[in-house]
Amino acid sequence: MKHFSSISAVEHPNKLLDLALACKANPHQWSDLGQQKTIGLLFFNPSLRTRLSTQKAAQHLGLEVLTMDVGSHGWKLEFEDGAIMNSDKAEHIKEAAAVVSQYCDLVAVRCFPSLTDRSADYREPVLSAFMKYASVPIINLESATAHPLQGLADWMTIKENTQKERPKVVLSWAPHPKALPQSVANSFVKYMEVADVDLTITHPPGYELAPEVAKGFTVSHDQAAAMKDADFVYTKNWSSYSTYGQVLTQDPAWTITSEKLGNAFFMHCLPVRRNVVVSDAVLDSPQSLVIEQANNRTFAAQAAIISLLKP
Amino acid sequence: MKHFSSISAVEHPNKLLDLALACKANPHQWSDLGQQKTIGLLFFNPSLRTRLSTQKAAQHLGLEVLTMDVGSHGWKLEFEDGAIMNSDKAEHIKEAAAVVSQYCDLVAVRCFPSLTDRSADYREPVLSAFMKYASVPIINLESATAHPLQGLADWMTIKENTQKERPKVVLSWAPHPKALPQSVANSFVKYMEVADVDLTITHPPGYELAPEVAKGFTVSHDQAAAMKDADFVYTKNWSSYSTYGQVLTQDPAWTITSEKLGNAFFMHCLPVRRNVVVSDAVLDSPQSLVIEQANNRTFAAQAAIISLLKP
Amino acid sequence: MKHFSSISAVEHPNKLLDLALACKANPHQWSDLGQQKTIGLLFFNPSLRTRLSTQKAAQHLGLEVLTMDVGSHGWKLEFEDGAIMNSDKAEHIKEAAAVVSQYCDLVAVRCFPSLTDRSADYREPVLSAFMKYASVPIINLESATAHPLQGLADWMTIKENTQKERPKVVLSWAPHPKALPQSVANSFVKYMEVADVDLTITHPPGYELAPEVAKGFTVSHDQAAAMKDADFVYTKNWSSYSTYGQVLTQDPAWTITSEKLGNAFFMHCLPVRRNVVVSDAVLDSPQSLVIEQANNRTFAAQAAIISLLKP
Q1: Is A246 exposed, middle or buried (0-12, 13-18, 19+ CB in 10 A)?
Q2: Are A84 and C270 in contact (CB < 8 Å)?
Q3: For residue range B120-141, what is the model confidence (pLDDT) as tens digits?
Q4: What is the pLDDT of residues B39-50, one digit of tens each?
Q5: By C-alpha distance, which of B308, B38, B305, B6 is closest to B151?
Q6: What's the pTM value of the predicted model, to 2 decimals?
Q7: To probe the interface with A, which of B35, B102, B105, B107 has the most A CB atoms within 10 Å?
C-alpha cells in the first residue's frame, strides 16, 4: 500500500484488521518503529477523536508529531493547476505538499467536502493533490468521501463483539439539523463488503448513497423491517447524494430508540446528537459501543502507520 | 486524592507542598513515572502560564502531552442532561469526557465561569461533568470558582520567602477594567487557611467573597489599615460575588504603590495590568515575587500529577 | 552569540554555514545536546515552514518543544514602557518574556511588522523586548525587518548548487497583490554580503531597500540587464521602504519567466504566488530550488540552536 487513502488501497484488509487488534492487545510492541521518524497531521477542519487518537497512535510507535491547523496556523491553499494567484490564496498545494512532506515520513490529512459540488467532492481534490505532490505516504484522516480509519475501528468493534459467523449489520440513516458528508457511511459500507457480514442499508427516500457504494446491498426505506433481528445497528446521518448536500428531512421517526434497537448493539462514529440521532436510553445502555469505537481509533491509526512504514 | 479539583480534595496539603518544593529542587527525579503515560490538556479558554507550565511539568515526568483547544480545534459541548441536541452543540460532555479520557491517563481542564449565573458557576458544571464522566483523574487548570495549581504555587512562594513562624499575609482587591472571576482569590484564601499565616482580606464594599470562603478571616474596607505591617500583599482583582459578575468600581485609590506596600513582598498570579492593579515601581522592584510565582506553577503541576499517578 | 537576532549577531558566519551543512549531512549527530532542555516557539503571526522546520530541528536535537500561538492561545501584549494598562492589552511584555523564558532554555519568536510606522518597525519593538526581558537566548523566526534563518537556508542552497568561486546572484523584486515586509530581502542581502558572491539588486523605482542594507551593491531598475548571465535569481516581493508599506505597482512585466531566467537557478523563500511572482514553467522546472530552500530551513534552525546551546 502506497497511501492509506481508502480501503480500496489496502491489499489485505483482513491482515490490517488483525494488525489493528494486535496493536490493541499490546500497544507498545512496535515502539521502535517510529524512532527518528516524524508524522505530520494537517487539519483543514476541526477534529477531536481523530486528532487525539492519531497522536496517541504515533506516540505508541515512537514517532515525533508535527500538527498544523491549516487555516488558523497557516494560510489558504490554491488547488487549481495554472491559477493566477492574485487573490486570497497564498500558496499552491504543489509547494505546500512538497515542503511539508520533506519534514515528515508520513503526512496525515483531514479535509471535509464542500457539499456544494458533487463531482468535485467525489474527485477528492485535496487528498488527491497531497498524494500527487507529497514525497511520502499520505493517510486519510477523513476526506470528502471517505473515513477509512473510522471504518477500520468500526470493523474491529464488530469483530470484538460477535461470535456469529455472519452477523446481521444494519446501517441506518438518522436525522440531524446540519448537512453532513457521506464519508463515514461510504467507508463503513466498503469495510462491511470485505467483512463477512449480512449488511442492510436503510434510509428515507432521497438519501441513496452513491451507486458504486450501495451496489449489491439490500436497501430499504422501512427502518423497522430493516432492523429486525439485527446484531449491530450502525447509525449515521448523511446529507443527500442525489440532491447533493441537502437536508431533505429531519423526521424524528428515524431516531434510534431502545424499542427499535431490540437486542442489537448500537454503533456511531461520534460526535452524536443525543435525542436527535439516538435516544439517551440507548447511548447510556450497555448495548452502546460508541466509546469502544472511539477507543479503537487509536489502534486503527497504529495499524495504518505500521503498514506504511514497514516494507 | 481522586481528582485535583481544589485544595479540599487534597488529604495532606502540607505533604503536597513538600512534594512541590522537592520537584523544584530536582525537577527530573521522577522522570520515569510518566513513561508510556499521556496527559490531555483541554482548554476552553486562553492560557499562557498554565499551558506552558503544565506541559513543562509533564515533560519533566516523562509524560506524553495531548493538547486540545476545545472550540478552535473541536466543537461546542452540551452539558445538560436530557437535552435534545438540535442546535449548535455537536457533542455531549458524556461522550467527550469518556472518549478523551480513554486516550489519556490524566485529563487537565481549564474552563472559566460565565459570570452571569452565580449558582450555575458555583456548581462548576464543566469540571464536575469531567469528574463524573471521565474514566481517569481530572486536574483543575482553573475552573469557574477555583485555581488550585495557582494557590499551591503561591503557597510555595510564601514558604520560600519567609522565616517567620506566622507571617502576616494580606489579600487585597485591586481595580481592573474587565469583570474577572473569583477563582484565584477563592483558592488563595483556601490555601492560606491551611498554611500557618495571619490572613487579612481587604476590598471595597460590595466585593465580599463567597461566605464559605471568607468565613473566619478579618475582612476590612480600609486597605491602608489592612496592609499595615504586612509581610506579603497578594493583589488580585475579582468581580462582585453579591452583585454577581459586575464591576462596581475601578477606583484607582486601590492600586498598589510602593508607598502602600512598605517592606512587604508583592504577589500576583499574572497577567497583571501595570499601573492599574499595581504601579511599575512595585513590579520592577526586588519586592515583587510575581515571576517566581509563575515559575512555581511548573512544580505545583508536577506535584499534582505525581500525587494522582502514584498510588 | 547571545541571541540569533540577525546575521550581525553571528561572530563567524562561515562556521555557522558549515555547521548547518553538517547538520544536514547527519541530522541526529547532536541528539543529546537538547536532553532535558526546552525550546519555546511563540507565533504572533501565521507560519508553516518556520513552525514545522523549527520543531523538526528541535526534535533532531532532543529538545522538548512548547508552542504558543500568541493571540489565539494567549492575549494581547503591551510593549510600551509606563503604559497605564486599562484597555485591551492584558499583559506587559516584561512579565510575558520573563515568565516564558523561565519555562524554556531558548525562546524563538515570530512577529511581523506593522508596515505602517517605519521607524517603529525598524526599531524591532517585539524582538528587542524579548531580548531585553527574557532570561534565555532568543531566536528570530522572522521579525519586522529580518528573517535570518531563511537567509542562512538560502546561503546553504547557493553553496550546494554552485562550483563557481564567485557566482552571480540577482535579487529581483516581483509583483504581489499584498503589501509584504522587507525582512526576507534584507536578510538575503546581508548574507550575500558575507558570502563570496557578485550580487545585483533589481526592482522598480520606489522599491529601494533601506540604505544601510543596499549600500555597496549594484542596484538597477532594468530587470533584464540585471539578470544577464546570472547563476541564481532570488525573487521576492517587498512593499516600498521609502513610501513605507505601500504597494506602488503590480506590473506583471516583473514576473519571472523561463525566458528571462535563462540558465540560472530560481530561488524563493515560499509561499509563492504562481503566475504572479513567477510562472508555473519556472517553478515546475529543475532550475527551481524552492523546495530545497525549504528543506534547508530545518538545518539552518538546527545550527542556530546548537550555536546558542553550546558554550
Answers
A1: middle
A2: no
A3: 999 999 999 999 999 999 999 9
A4: 999 999 888 899
A5: B6
A6: 0.96
A7: B102
